[in-house]
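ARCHIVE CARD
CATEGORY: sequence design from structure
SOURCE FIELD: tokenized fold
FIELD CONTENT:
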């Protein structure tokens, strides 16, 4: 499902200093299949470093059973729904889980990767992990894996697999450019909970958000330059549509809104666009709370009603395409724009498993592994 590869013009960031991998007698013994282990000692694997890419999540199928299981896990996360359980549980189990699975399942079916029988998010995340493994092939002690915060493969299962492979230290890379407690922090929550069940816990690092990282801004720019050049029309406005969160998250100190606007500001400068060309907005609101504005669907309607005929929308808050981009933006929002009088609408795919994306991931991972490899 890869789109055309883009020739990278940036070099991965190299660590300022490279520390040789630490060794121990047991690690050397395992590599030689012999060593100073006492007779009867169980075989152990050590001396490896793990990298775990983590994305939001995906159902295993779009049928009612799988959708209900996925939605139950997702909407039970207190980081996602910050309501007291006594208020939220009757709504979730009495209404949402009895009505939403059918509707959401139909939406997933419309974007499902039928060849692999999985969601596009799983397809792209797997590909990112496999390609990053190839790019780090010079580091024989590094093992790259991938997981989902909700659904499969789960964070606990992949952490256990890495530990069994001999990973004494693991880098967690949440695939969310902009930090939010509802996403990045939730990955950390699940990771730390998983370690509580381990007798022999690996050392742990978590990669920071990369909303303003030059390699991320450059990856977005390279991707956009190619995509915009391929359009048969000139967009009058380009919308950066981020996933929305309730406004009170911002009031409580969540930096997500600031991270989103900084990404847009840096990208606008990198692309050399005039002021007003790029519009930042927020999608996917849910429930009665006040959410971050301006809303994406309202914005495209207003643009069309004001006489704007040509727009393009991309999603810099998503590393990989998923339901919120392939269905909500490419189908629903596109329809709202044309119904309001717009003529040309383009949804520009996410970074996915493109060369700019892999350049970015490799740079971030090598930098965050500094001192471990």
């Amino acid at each position: 499902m890869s789109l055309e590869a883009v020739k990278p013009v940036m070099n991965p960031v190299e660590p300022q200093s490279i520390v040789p991998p630490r060794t121990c007698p047991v690690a050397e013994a395992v590599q030689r299949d012999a060593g100073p282990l006492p007779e009867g000692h169980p075989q152990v694997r050590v001396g490896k470093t793990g990298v775990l890419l983590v994305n939001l999540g995906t159902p295993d199928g779009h049928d009612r059973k799988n959708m209900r299981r996925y939605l139950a896990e997702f909407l039970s996360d207190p980081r996602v729904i910050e309501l007291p359980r006594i208020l939220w549980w009757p709504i979730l189990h009495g209404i949402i889980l009895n009505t939403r699975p059918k509707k959401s399942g139909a939406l997933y079916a419309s974007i499902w990767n039928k060849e692999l029988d999985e969601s596009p998010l799983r397809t792209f995340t797997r590909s990112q992990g496999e390609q990053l493994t190839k790019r780090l092939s010079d580091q024989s002690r590094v093992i790259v894996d991938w997981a989902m915060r909700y659904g499969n493969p789960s964070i606990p299962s992949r952490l256990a697999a890495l530990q069994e492979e001999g990973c004494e230290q693991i880098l967690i890379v949440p695939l969310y450019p902009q930090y939010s407690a509802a996403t990045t922090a939730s990955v950390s929550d699940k990771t730390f909970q998983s370690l509580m069940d381990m007798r022999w816990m690996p050392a742990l690092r978590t990669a920071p958000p990369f909303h303003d990282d030059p390699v991320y801004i450059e990856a977005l720019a390279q991707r956009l330059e190619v995509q915009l050049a391929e359009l048969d029309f000139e967009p009058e406005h380009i919308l950066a549509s981020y996933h929305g969160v309730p406004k009170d998250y911002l009031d409580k100190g969540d930096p997500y809104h600031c991270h989103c606007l900084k990404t847009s500001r840096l990208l606008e400068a990198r692309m050399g666009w005039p002021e007003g060309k790029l519009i930042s907005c927020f999608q996917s609101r849910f429930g009665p709370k006040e959410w971050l504005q301006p809303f994406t669907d309202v914005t495209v309607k207003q643009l069309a009603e004001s006489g704007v005929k040509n727009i393009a929308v991309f999603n810099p808050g998503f590393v990989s395409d998923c339901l919120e981009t392939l269905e909500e933006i490419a189908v629903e929002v596109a329809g709202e724009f044309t119904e309001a009088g717009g003529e040309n609408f383009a949804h520009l795919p996410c970074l996915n498993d493109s060369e700019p994306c892999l350049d970015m991931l490799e740079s971030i991972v090598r930098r965050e592994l500094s001192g471990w490899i």
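CARD ANNOTATION: The radius of gyration is 22 Å. The first strand starts at residue 48 and ends at 58.
SHELF: design records, drawer C
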